[in-house]
Amino acid sequence: MAKIYTTFDRRNRLLTLLRERPGIRVAEIAQVLQVSEGTVRNDLNALAREGRLERVRGGGVPSDDQPIYSLAFNTRLHVHEIEKQRIAHWAAELVEDGDTILLDASTTVYRMVPFLNTHHRLTIVTNGIEIGYKLAQNPANSVIMLGGVLNPDGILVTSLVSDQFLKDLHIKIAFVSCSGFTIEAGLTERDILEAQIKAKMITAADSVVALIDSSKFGRLSLVPFAHTEQINRIFTDSGLDQRWIEQMRTACTIFTVCGEDGISEYTPCAQETRHFRIGFANLGETMPFSIDVRRGIERAVQAAGNIDLVLADNRLDKDVALGVAERFASQNLDLVIEYQIDEQIGNQIMDTFRQAGIPVIAVDIPIVGATYFGVDNYRAGHMAGFALGNWIVDNWGGSIDRLIILEEPRAGSLVAARIQGQLDKLQSVIGEIPADKRLVLNSGNTCEISEAEMTAALKKMPGTHNIAVVCFNDDAALGALLAARKLHREHDVVIVGQGADRRVREEMSNPSCRIIGSTAYEPELYGEKLIPLALKILRGEPVPPAVYIDHVFIPATQEQSQ
After folding, report:
1. Is 22 exposed, middle or buried, given 0-12, 13-18 or 19+ CB atoms closer than 10 A?
2. Cα angle at 421 between 415 and 426, to 5 degrees?
3. What is the pLDDT of residue 159?
4. pLDDT over 60 at 561, yes or no
5. In CATH, what number is assigned to the domain containing residue 291?
6. What CATH number is attached to the domain comprising 34?
């Protein structure tokens, strides 16, 4: 049976192949990874956008194979490489646009660089020359280098740092690593000067996050620079021995284990006597909406203080979702929050958890036997359809040449109600739209598939101008917009979205954007309601069979309707 990689791990494997076999061609990579050549090219382009490789004809060259100052640094960079990348990926999730953060000069923290390059308005303070150089290439963020003495290997600035200088920067999070860690000694380093500057970094930050691969647990280096109680959160990898996880429960710090399929998050020092283990199977880790749902759940779990969270990625794939359910059923979980796209496998998933005696909350896609949480689909669609109809009346005289419907048939009949709501309300404003004016496309629940479908459709109607588009979600709306933009036909379309995620809101800030609004679901607030709902179920308290979120339609600026 072919190994199924997550997108994250497949791309890391691709980088490893490029290092091990320079000049390897796309066709060979596709054969090794057992994916299509198109997937390989998409991965190469994505890695290039993240700054992790340089694209060359027929392939790519990993960026971090070109050290600025030190071959020794580059050598250490590839020790426990996959583990460091997983740790860095999840640690970078803590960073938000506009933050001021501090990064030490370690190779594990260096692995955060590509995941920070998608952020904006960051102020990054570092003593690492390699880290500073890489981050400074992104003009969206600012980099401040700490002054002092350059070490012989050319990658670290130490000493001569003013304590007051650091304190005046109002640093939100300091990300550090170490040579060794024990609960008793805390974080330790081999080099005295390096330990001194890390100690100053820690005292200057509001929060301290340690990135420690499993090989460093139990090691004791020369100089301690942080006690365990000074660390707010620790990220490590799934190679860690179970005994360390049990020991870390005695330390009052959030402890996150990063694996191939997701993470397990432990929150010790709970206020409540009973401690729960909750699993969250996310819809997909490539879409901002579902990422925001997961982040909201993580925040709510930390606030609750008595929950260990186990995370997995369903990857918009029914087979993956079934595999995740089977793993969760064997992990002694108290409850599962299930977020997956395919209505047809709901019964199989529910049967798996029912056999294990695990209650389930189903997010956005209903599952018979589970408590439903999420969108009031018909109402959400109604709002968008009404806004679209009014725009058409105001700007196109109430008439359209074509209606394109970007749906997601896998989601089932209940979720299809958000499309029906848009159609019903749109027609109540502009009148009935004949069947021969309607075109139904499959969004695939992704921006890429929606863009491809919309591109093909627009090419078949070159003389059609007033085209209204209703969408299953914001990924579909953005795909439709990108297709029209690519074909220079933006003014032929008007689009409404569903979700109002951060990408769509950013797009709608452009006065010429043809997405004229989106019904907000506020995915970042899901966790605030999901976790209290989960705790009620676990305590045996009565809950309704369905809990709906509140909706509001977010319109674009007035200039966009011109």
Report:
1. exposed
2. 145
3. 52
4. no
5. 3.40.50.2300
6. 1.10.10.10
